[in-house]
Amino acid sequence: MNVMKTTDPRLHYLTPLKQTPFHPRTAAENRLNDWGPWAGYTTALSFGDTAMEHSAIRNTASVYDLCPMVKYRVTGPDAAAYLDRLTVRNASKLSVGGVHYTIWCDDAGKVIDDGTLFRLGPTDYRICCQERHLPWLLDSAIGYEVAIVEETEDVAALSLQGPCTYSVLKAAGFDVADLKPFRMRTFPFDGGEVMISRTGFTGDLGYELWTTPAHAIALWDHLFAAGAPWGIRPIGTHALDIARIEAGFIITNLDFIPVDQAVREDRARSPFELGLEWMVDFDKGHFTGRRALLKEKVNKSSKWALVGLDIDGNVSVEGSIIYQNGKTEVGTVTAACWSPSAKRNIALAQVRRPYHESGNLFVEVYALRELQYAKLMLPARVCERPFFAPPRRRTTPPAPF
Amino acid sequence: MPSFDVIVIGGGTNGLAAAHRLQSSGRKVLVLESAAAAGGAALGHEFAPGFRSPGLAHVANQIDNRVMSGMDLARHGLGFVTSSVSSTALSATGDHLVLEGAAGASIKGNLSDADRKNWLALRKQLLSFAEVLAPFKQITAPRIAKGAGNEFGKLAKFGLNLRMLGKADFREFLRMILINVYDVVNDELTDKRLKGLLTFDATLGSWLGPRSPNSLILLLNRLSGEVAGQRATLALPKGGMAAVAEAMVKSAAASGVVVRTGAAVDSLLIEDDKAVGVTLANGEEVRAKLVVSAMNPKTTFLKLIGPRHLDAGFVKCIGDQKSRGAAAKLHLALKAAPDFRGADLKSRLVIAPSDDQVELAYNAVKYGEVPKRPVMEIVIPSAHETGFAPTGQHVLSAVVQFAPHKPKAGPDAARAEMLENTLAMLEEHAPGIRSLITHAELLMPYDIEARYGMVGGNWHHGELSVEQMLFLRPIAGIAQYATPIEGLWLAGAGCHPGGGISGAAGWNAAERILREVRA
Ligand SMILES: Cc1cc2nc3c(=O)[nH]c(=O)nc-3n(C[C@H](O)[C@H](O)[C@H](O)COP(=O)(O)OP(=O)(O)OC[C@H]3O[C@@H](n4cnc5c(N)ncnc54)[C@H](O)[C@@H]3O)c2cc1C
User: Fold this and answer.
1) Structural domain boundaries, residue A227
2) If both were cysteines, with which of A34, A303, A368, B417 could A45 make a disulfide (CB 3.0 to 4.6 Å apart)?
3) pLDDT digits (tens, 9 = 90+) for B230-282
4) Could you tell me the CATH superfamily of domain B4-49+56-80+239-322+463-516?
5) Residue A107 with chain B: CB contacts under 8 Å
């Protein structure tokens, strides 16, 4: 394994980006040497062909290195109560072996981050998220009997996504036939364990595999050996990004600015403003931000809406400004792509209310065509998310593609 | 059990003031007080057989005039043995300085002509600044936010007062408002005794030394106080500070307020995220439409309510609110009158030999230590009236600074050391006093916390310092007496405008409630 070997902690600056436990394998596969930083790690943006990698997500089996995902372990008698107060969903109701997508807010009801919450035991949870939050998690622990530990470096994880992933796992000796979406199960592996959850960030059939760094390489090799008949392939962040836009998923710091990082006061967003109000459980008792959110709900004072857009043509519109009637500026596209799966030109966008319901929207695109920009005003329609949602993502047992 | 519109938790002077104001406007108010009698830190106690302290607080300098007249305290028995106590800056050689009249209008004793002249000019300037600040005490702290319900009429008066200062004084106001008192007295004066007294007064009840940033504003705050119709004066209530509490209790009762003593509130009853009453330590539930907490704000949120009903950021902020106390309280039973080298025992006797000595005494507590040479203000109530000590004997009441609230040496060792050092200081200024002592009681900040519920033993139920004043008091977001929990209000000294036997915070809170909540 080629993780940092320096013993003197003062020399950390020599390695500004860490390597994940899978690096020996991802480095060997990365034909174009296309790397990008993610949460302090160097990670593959693509392995050589983003279109083929996306195609693996939707047609065969893809493997994505999840290690940089920030992970916290929350344990102790008050773990459930603590998470009920920290997050907007009901963590007590999440059963052991279950996972749910969740968010947490500051006192003003503005979103700090989103993530997935795993209930590993009655008093044992794991939070997986994009940004680091230890100070906030510890502040939130005042008055609760819980221990909070960051375990990002102690867990090695891979995301295995695509219609054939069930078959790949079966071939690998992991029987997940009856594993429903958002459930997990642990298997012995390589003298240790691997926990497999039916979760992912693609909106497709897929699993995430969690083990310790010591078993990382063995897991990779085992999966690739078992998955070869299905054309299993590693994918980079670019391919995943297309899939997640198709699935309508948002990413912290790309689709919204977390309130604790926002420099400009008006950049903070509430769950209502990110289309996440469905998960806010006002009936579970108090949680941080509840009073502010209830007020926002009652007063209907949300200022923004996060919407899906369907845009004419096939020019991808990332970063574009949105206009109503071609003149009033009403928002910004936060993520966009030509969707190979939906065969539509799609985007996620923040739109100032009430323009999300007004119709007659246009996105302004500067299309660079051989060193000259063509300014386009493309008609856009607010539409349902996800843009692509194959039934196989939920079918249990999954079909043996 | 009759039903009440309002429960006031804590029958200190602020709780009583709030209760009376609310009751007089037609609400039925119940005060729940944990101690055997209402009055909080105004109450005195028998600390040795036949010897009674005048109260934890012993000098009145800011009884709010609205409380005084609104509760008609005079009719309910509040009088003053004197409302212009002089202050004596004691000298160990008997070369005392005596400041008489409001804020030392005249000085008796050996003082250079230059200092005398400069003092009068400085005094005038400080009083004019204090005058500008005074109106703030009687309003809800304004907030910098839209729709905050600011009292613009009264704020306009503040603006006008500032304008009235004139250009030169206004500039001086801005220069001095956040300055430290040490620099100010050293800019203008040379006399150590005078500088010692002024820096002592500025830092009394604070966790600041004379050279700490912003220490002057506490002197201005003190000078902006008013008692018995006089600004910047010191008064001794007849019967000690406890008499203020007694008059307030009588007045409250006369207006219809029910005061239940021995009723310690254990927790706030919250239903549907609204405060609907309280649970007492004995398990009894008492319900009302509104609950007003006139006890410590930190304790209110962290103990009575608990983090689970509050947002995480809020819990962190209220937990971090600074509440370090550094004032210890000394009570001595003396078998005869002490002799402070001829000083008038009816004066407020201050041992603060110089501004540097005050600073040095503060230095110790920064490190959790006991100062070698503490500074103090002494009141001898038995020199004024009977009832505190057997005839011919005396009670000495002193606020001694600076005492560590979390001593490194541990509570008992620190108390013993503090007492020894205090008595040594006293002996230096009143030779023979130690042989007169028949009983000594020293309450350290942690003793005061245990006995009176003032977190850290802090005078103001949370330090009064620039970063915890006005819209930042007790912390930002709850500076207007309302709290995040609907139906729960704050009214104690932890709120604007801070502590002292005053009732201002309680009265302001009641006014705010009357304005914001329909009966
Ligand atoms: C050493 C010292 C000396 C001081 N000297 C002076 C002075 O000379 N002059 C001056 O003006 N000020 C002085 N002060 C400051 C002054 O005493 C306080 O600022 C003032 O008493 C605050 O009034 P309050 O009503 O807000 O609080 P308090 O007087 O503290 O009253 C709070 C009340 O709440 C009650 N309570 C607490 N918990 C509960 C509960 N759970 N249930 C029911 N009741 C509860 C307490 O028993 C108490 O009666 C001094 C302070 C100290 C520490």
Assistant:
1) 11-67+155-235
2) A34
3) 999 999 999 999 999 999 999 999 999 999 999 999 999 999 999 999 999 99
4) FAD/NAD(P)-binding domain (3.50.50.60)
5) 311-314
From-to residues of CATH 3.50.50.60 in chain B: 4-49+56-80+239-322+463-516
Looking at the structure, do residues A39 and A78 belong to the same domain, yes or no? Answer: no
Identity at A167, one-letter amino acid code:
S
In this structure, are A311 and A364 located in the same domain? yes
Q: Do B311 and A136 touch (CB under 8 A)?
A: no
**Beta strands at B285-293 and B4-9: parallel, antiparallel or unpaired:** parallel
Mutant choice from B270, B298, B303, B308 vs A, greatest count of A C-beta within 10 A: B308
- pLDDT attached to residue A1: 43
* Alpha-carbon distance values, B278 to A57, B264, B309 (Å): 58, 10, 14
Q: Supply angle C-alpha A43, A47, A50, rounded to 5.
A: 110
**Chain A with chain B: Cβ pairs closer than 8 A:** 43
Task: Give pLDDT, residue B193.
Answer: 98
Asked if A341 and A56 count as a contact pair (C-beta separation under 8 A), the reply is no
pLDDT of residue B244: 97
Which of B312, B319, B484 is opposite residue A291, by nearest beta carbon? B484
Q: How far apart are CA A373 and CA A367, in angstroms?
A: 5
- How many A from CA of B40 to the centre of ligand 1? 5
Same domain membership, residue A270 and residue A307: yes
> Does B16 contact ligand 1 (Cβ within 6 A)?
no
Mutate to test the pocket of ligand 1, among B452, B468, B496 (most ligand atoms within 8 A of CB): B452
What is the C-alpha to C-alpha distance for residues B306 and A142, in angstroms, rounded to an integer?
A: 10
Our count of domains for chain A comes to 3
Count of all residues that appear for chain A in the document: 401
Residues of chain A with pLDDT under 70: 1-6
What percent of chain B shows pLDDT beyond 90?
93
Which residues, 6 or more positions from B414, have their beta carbon under 8 angstroms from its beta carbon?
B370, B403, B404, B407, B408, B444
List of chain B residues whose C-beta atoms are within 8 Å of the C-beta of residue A86: 312
Place B209 in a pLDDT band, splitting at 50, 70 and 90.
very high
Please state which of the four CATH numbers 3.30.519, 3.30.160, 1.10.3210, 2.40.50 is assigned to the domain occupying B323-452. 3.30.519
Q: What is the pLDDT of residue B157?
A: 80
Owner of token pair 């009997």: A145
B15 CB within 6 A, ligand 1: yes
First to last CA, chain B: 20
Cα of B182 vs centre of ligand 1, distance in Å, is 29
Q: B289-347 pLDDT, tens per residue? A: 999 999 999 999 999 999 999 999 999 999 999 999 999 999 999 999 999 999 999 99
The interface pTM score, or ipTM, of the predicted complex is 0.94
CA angle B407, B413, B417 (to 5 degrees): 90
Residue A243 contacts residue A337 (beta carbons within 8 Å):
no
Among A268, A265, A385, smallest CA distance to A335 is for A385
Report the alpha-carbon distance of residue B392 to residue A255 in Å, rounded.
81
Query: Is A143 in contact with B315 (Cβ distance < 8 A)?
Result: yes
The helix/strand/coil state of B329 is strand
Of the candidates B294, B322, B323, B332, the one whose C-alpha atom is nearest the C-alpha of residue B443 is B332
Q: Is B1 on the interface with A (CB under 8 A)?
A: no
Average pLDDT on B34-52 reads: 97
Q: Are B330 and B397 contacting, i.e. CB atoms less than 8 angstroms apart? A: yes
CA distance B474 to B472: 6
Is A288 in contact with B311 (Cβ distance < 8 A)?
Answer: yes
